[in-house]
């Protein structure tokens, strides 16, 4: 089967073509064990790094890449980059697999723990990287081509890739949450500037619903990650790094949820606790039946397909409003990481280097309206003149880094069902937060709950 047919078959099935034999799986398991024991990677890893750096065209093999980007709106750009990589390195095949983001972390951990089925390279959420590294599932990239021109990376996105003095990934894309709004709606309601505080947002939402009958002023996603700007506005977080405590049941989180409740009351806004809450939020905004949402740059390409934004200039982007003690969205994004048990380390290093080069980042950012992680990319004309990327620069500059504690990224999934029940009225704030705090016990090793 030739390369094109093989890639098409793999994509159509949405799963990797299984090329590894049992012996390679055993090698992967041994490599993983060495990594988990905290070794320096061994001679094989050093040889792979040396070969990739000194004689890249001699590298052969197959790189399986789990890409967790949006299959419809973002993945096409990455497929194109894969084709460009294979053209540059004809002796390396890429087995591209688009893996749904939800559940991808558990899928990777299951495969890595079994020593069979894990990809060579993965697009991992910034919150997953320290967790994977602590478990011994990632290959350190220090001294490899994967870290080429690392001083070009923005400091904050790079922070999520280091753990105990080693570098386990490179930041592929960064983001934060911002306030997206419909400029035409604002004009009809006589609103001249985006709201600066949550009180301003409440006032604006009420004006919008009065001026445009049938419109929802603001839609707030009932997801724990989307609660973070409200928590930051109260001066809190879901963990306290200084005291090493999980702080889901803190007064700051309580106050944040009270703000959300107020904003989603009848006559102001709405929320949704169903499994389709994110999609429903996005669809309402695209259709012009919702005036404001909180979302990130990853959603912009999809937003611009909606009839309300047939004119892209109608989309407004601003920093999330401020609470009484702060104003920030969380720093999000994705890193490229290499599996510790990969039998194709040299090829994987070259793949990461290529996909995350300044040229590749500029291409993907321009195609997807996403935020690059390399400083130099922002100076390129196609990025500097991109109005969406420019609009998110200000929210990103004031964004709050996510806690670097292994396991902290799992807290959002743990917390969300309890947050949904609180917002849906099935449980009080106090009881819901207490239950979530108990459920989170042990999720962040070394942290009390």
From TrEMBL:
Pfam families according to UniProt: SBP_bac_1
Lineage: Bacteria, Bacillati, Actinomycetota, Actinomycetes, Pseudonocardiales
Keyword Transport: yes
Organism: Prauserella endophytica
Similarity comment text for this entry: Belongs to the bacterial solute-binding protein 1 family.
Name of the featured protein: Extracellular solute-binding protein
Endpoints of the signal sequence: 1-36
Gene3D superfamilies the record matches: Periplasmic binding protein-like II (3.40.190.10)
InterPro entries per record: SBP (IPR006059)
Keywords recorded for this protein, A-Z: Signal, Transport
